Amino acid sequence: MVLRATDLRKSFGEGEATVVAVDGISLTVAAGEFLAVTGRSGSGKSTLLALLAGMERPTSGEVWLEERRLAETSDADLARLRRREIGFIFQTFNLLPVLTVEENVALPFLLDRRPPREWIRPVAEALEVVGLSHRRTHSPERISVGERQRVAIARALAVRPRVLFADEPTGSLDSERGVEVIGLLRSAAERGSAVVMVTHDGAAAARADRTLQLRDGRAC
Q: In the chain, where does DSSP find H-type helix?
């Protein structure tokens, strides 16, 4: 298994003010598998995604990326892992307006201080996959919302991730663009990435291989 979580829990606050966001979730995701995590707002979906990606530390439980136990991984090593082996598609895109489309896609490589000879080709290939090669010199402000989402996907794909996480990737898109985005995630799984998507979109979830539904932080 590429990704494994065991009895994962995350709570915020103390005493009577404690809120349990994720409550005892266990799951596995294999290479080439597409998992959709569904549930109403406040059910713990985005918190679970952050825990699986190593962006949040669990209150208890374990997350493993292949043979690596994330609890034993330093913050610096987790950041390096996310740059090199994990793709994350944010609901708000998280594109930098001062960078071009190409530079935004290359950002994980740039943060890793890798020379252009190591990233020009994978960045070009990722832009080709999402159909934005012709926009590579544009700033994010000069492209549409749908195109910004595809830039975010290209950035996640460029590192050829072992695991690709997507937080509500169709939330800002119309139905046609949403179908295109889910198709790109489906293609990433077919190329061997484990894909974990959080969504409240039933049509998007239906295209995954399987679904994990959350209610009040628990699987149901």
A: 45-52, 75-84, 101-105, 107-111, 116-129, 145-158, 175-190, 202-205
Domains assigned to the chain: 32-42+74-219 (3.40.50.300)
Q: How far is CA 216 from the centre of its chain?
A: 22
Residue closest to 205 by CA, chosen among 91, 89, 36: 36
Per-residue pLDDT of the chain (220 residues; tens, 9 = 90+): 999 999 999 999 888 889 999 999 999 999 999 999 999 999 999 999 999 999 999 999 999 999 999 999 999 999 999 999 999 999 889 999 999 999 999 999 999 999 999 999 999 999 999 999 999 999 999 999 999 999 999 999 999 999 999 999 988 888 888 898 899 999 999 999 999 999 999 999 999 999 999 999 999 8
Give the Cα separation of 134 and 101 in Å (integer): 10
Q: Measure CA of the first residue to CA of the last residue in the chain; give whole Å.
A: 22
* Total-model pTM: 0.93
